[in-house]
Amino acid sequence: MSTSRTRITSPADIGLVIQQARLARGLSQTALAEQLGLSQRSVSEIESGKPTIYMRKVFDLLRATGVELSADLPLDE
Hints:
Elements: E1 3-8, H1 11-24, H2 29-36, H3 40-47, H4 53-65, E2 69-74
Helix pairs in contact: 2-3
């Protein structure tokens, strides 16, 4: 299986990466939420990239310290 590397620069990017990884594993939002002890709504909000004050601060910290995040996503073949 091949992968694609993508830079993560925003809450929306994290949401998309999580959504793609969840789908690649055949999990529903509800199943993932149950595994993590979260509500399905929480998973949905994270996947939609809903920015929270904490998430904005994390990205401020990353930018201020020069740290970059990236993810390897599996590609459908």
